[in-house]
Amino acid sequence: MTGQAAIRHSKNPSGLGDLYLRHASWLSSRLRRLGVTGVDDIVQETYLRIAPYQARGEVRHPKSLLLRIATNLVAEEGRRTQRQRLHAATTTACNDAASQTEAVLLKQLILRLPQPERDIFMLSRFGSLTNEEIAARLELSVKTVERRITRALKQVDAQLRR
Predict the structure, then answer these.
(1) Mean pLDDT, residues 74-92
(2) CA dist., res. 89 & res. 84, Å (int)
(3) Owning domain of residue 153
(4) How far apart (Å, rounded) are the C-alpha atoms in residues 49 and 62?
(5) Of 55-59, 100-104, 121-125, which range is least confident?
(6) Helix (H) or strand (E) holding 40
(7) pLDDT for 105-143, tens place per residue?
(8) Same domain? 8 vs 78
(9) Domain boundary among 66, 84, 102
(10) Residue 117 and residue 79 share a domain
């Protein structure tokens, strides 16, 4: 059942349903002129929020109250969207800062390695070379390359645990 049909079938036909029939199209067109997107949802939420006032007979200037509620809803949605964008930007900035911090830390850890382990570690992890390719390039045995990588990893691990 659509919002209009639900309001028409409410218990009080001269209450909220009447208010809806008299002012919904006016409110929709007013919001569209203001450049609001999602007008139908805003109008529906506006009538949900005005219902308690209407039920108590407290609505003296319906157009004014409807427009106030609707503009408050639009502003609330704008603030929510702005908070979400700020949160996303903050999260991205924090992730970038964490990535930069991690990169600096990793660089420091690698620079603390002895030269032979450092060279092999860099070729293995950042050069994407296999142990066999590293051995051929540095004219070492594969077993020596494996031992140096193992030592480098142990040293990096020990430094991280400090």
Answers:
(1) 84
(2) 9
(3) 112-161
(4) 12
(5) 100-104
(6) helix 39-55
(7) 888 888 999 999 999 989 988 888 899 999 999 999 999
(8) yes
(9) 84
(10) no
User: Which one, of 83, 73, 151, 82, lies nearest residue 113 by Cα?
Assistant: 151
Structure tokens at 46: 């506006």
Position 147 confidence tier, pLDDT thresholds 50, 70, 90: very high
129: DSSP letter = -
What percent of the chain is predicted at pLDDT more than 90?
Answer: 48
Q: Domain tally for the chain?
A: 2
Residue 104 lies in a domain: no
Q: Could you give the CA distance from residue 145 to residue 93 in angstroms, rounded to a whole number?
A: 39
Residue 63 placed within a domain:
yes
Helix or strand run (H / E) with residue 131: helix 131-138
Residue type, 41: D
Answer whether residue 52 shows pLDDT above 50. Answer: yes
Q: Is residue 106 part of a domain?
A: no
HSE of 74, CA atoms in CB hemisphere, 13 A: 19
**Quick one: how many helices (H) and strands (E) in the chain?**
7, 0
**Which helix (DSSP H) or strand (DSSP E) does residue 93 occupy?**
helix 62-111
